[in-house]
Amino acid sequence: AQSVTQPDIHITVSEGASLELRCNYSYGATPYLFWYVQSPGQGLQLLLKYFSGDTLVQGIKGFEAEFKRSQSSFNLRKPSVHWSDAAEYFCAVGTPTGTASKLTFGTGTRLQVTL
Amino acid sequence: DGGITQSPKYLFRKEGQNVTLSCEQNLNHDAMYWYRQDPGQGLRLIYYSQIVNDFQKGDIAEGYSVSREKKESFPLTVTSAQKNPTAFYLCASSTRLPGDEQFFGPGTRLTVL
Predict the structure, then answer these.
(1) Shortest distance, CA A106 to any CA of chain B (angstroms)
(2) Degrees (nearest 5) of the Cα angle B64, B69, B75?
(3) Nearest to residue A35, comparing CAs of A24, A46, A19, A51?
(4) Chain B window 4-33: which residues touch A at a Cβ cutoff of 8 Å?
(5) pLDDT in tens, A98-110
(6) Is the dihedral of CA A104, A25, A76, B42 positive or negative?
(7) Number of other CB atoms surrounding residue A62 within 10 Å
(8) Inter-chain contact A102–B48, Cβ cutoff 8 Å?
């Protein structure tokens, strides 16, 4: 069965600093990978996804992620963080079985941005 | 605007009562999902449905039930058998194309007193 590990429960960065959130997955085949963001008390919004092709994926709000098969990783990056980026971030792996996209989520990383 | 609605946003119930959470989507998606979110545990799949009149158990289905009588609607009932029902519940929908993302509703916070 697939699994997702987000090793950092909580990260604090200064506004304007760069950001990298880590995600490692376990899955036997090539996975579909997603990053979602959640503001407190809200639903999840998709930031970006990896389906196939170019391993560097661009998303909304200036985020990008790089799929590294050799490291089973899909880390999320942003070159300059804004205070509005403070939220919880979830990495997820999808099962490419031809059925609906059943997702397995990591436990999330809470980002705090200091001014 | 297309999207997913969940109602109510906050729900309070007494222990031992069944409660039904509403989820409606107008995205014309075939698949719908229910997740439970607890602090520090991410999202865990309760039930999912790929098509009308069909649904499958997720990872934590015990104490929950669902129905899928209409494409647009996927209500979740939290029964009295659920040992720890207080949580944040999220509904999502997607197409059935592999790799397509799930779209999420705003969630319902259920508190059982």
Answers:
(1) 6
(2) 35
(3) A46
(4) 4, 30-31
(5) 566 689 999 999 9
(6) positive
(7) 14
(8) yes
Identify all chain B residues contacting A3, using CB atoms and an 8 Å cutoff: none
A39/B contact by beta carbon, under 8 A:
no
Per-residue pLDDT at A78: 98
Count of CB atoms situated within 10 Å of the CB of A27? 18
Using only C-alpha atoms, chain B has a radius of gyration, in whole angstroms, of 13
- Chain A's closest residue to B5, CA to CA, is A43
How close, in Å, is residue B86 to chain A by CA atoms? 14
Task: Give B30-64 pLDDT, tens digit per residue.
Answer: 999 999 999 888 899 999 999 999 999 999 999 99
For A55-66, the DSSP string reads: SEEE-GGG-EEE
Rounded to whole angstroms, the Cα distance separating B1 from A95 reads 29
Contact assessment for residue A106 and residue A90, using Cβ atoms and an 8 Å cutoff: yes
Question: Which chain B residue has its CA at the smallest distance from A89's CA?
Answer: B42
